[in-house]
Structures are given as C-alpha cells and as structure tokens.
Amino acid sequence: MTIIAINAKDANVSRETSAEPALGRWLAEAAQGQAEACFDLGVAFSTGSNGAACDLIEAHKWFNLAAVRGHEEAAHCRADISDEMTAREIAEAQRRARQWLAEGRLRAA
Q1: What one-character-per-residue DSSP string does the chain give?
Q2: How far is CA 51 from the centre of its chain?
Q3: Structure pTM?
C-alpha cells in the first residue's frame, strides 16, 4: 500500500510504503530503549498489521521488552496473548527478549 501525503503549507508531496517505514522506525527506536516503540512492535506482531506477520512469540517478546521499560498496557497485552500460547512458545519469547537485552540493543534505564 502506498500513502501519498500532501502538506498544504508548503505543497510538499511525499510517497512512502506505509508498513515498512513504521516497522523500521519502531525497531530503531526500540534499539534506543523506547518502551512505546517496543509496544507498537508488539501490537504489530500480535495483530499482523503494519507489514508484520502475525507472530505471537515475537509479539510477546516486544510486549515483554516494553513492560520491562515500564509500559503498563504492554504487561496487560503480554498476559492476554499468553493465554493463546503454549508454555514452550512463551519460553521461546522470553529467550528472544533476553537475547535482545544481552546483545545490548535495549539498555537498562
């Protein structure tokens, strides 16, 4: 999907693929430790939106990382999707979150 944005003030027109820039921006912001970006990634993966495939393991990972940063709604979303996951899937999501932290992409506050 292509979105065309027109800025009436200075008559600028820009075209961008709507999904990819959002995911890329959220990943970059998540790497800087921004809880809201982690939450947005969790939403994208839990709903299969913004160009992300529906993947509850990835969604749980991102909600977990957002919750660690103090995002309260992320903790609730993580609990909600956990009801639809097996213990093995939850363990994998937690492993991925720990790996993300260990790689230093999301530093402790």
Answers
A1: -EEEEEETTTTEEEEEESHHHHHHHHHHHHHTT-HHHHHHHHHHHHHT-TTPPP-HHHHHHHHHHHHHTT-HHHHHHHHHHHTTS-HHHHHHHHHHHHHHHHTTSS---
A2: 11
A3: 0.78
Angle between helix 56-68 and helix 35-47 axes, rounded to 10 deg? 160
Please give the structure tokens belonging to residue 10: 């200075």
Q: Among residues 54, 52, 69, 56, which one has the least CA distance to residue 105?
A: 69
Contact indicator for 82, 60 with CB cutoff of 8 Å = yes
Residues 38-64 have pLDDT tens digits of 999 999 999 999 999 999 999 999 999
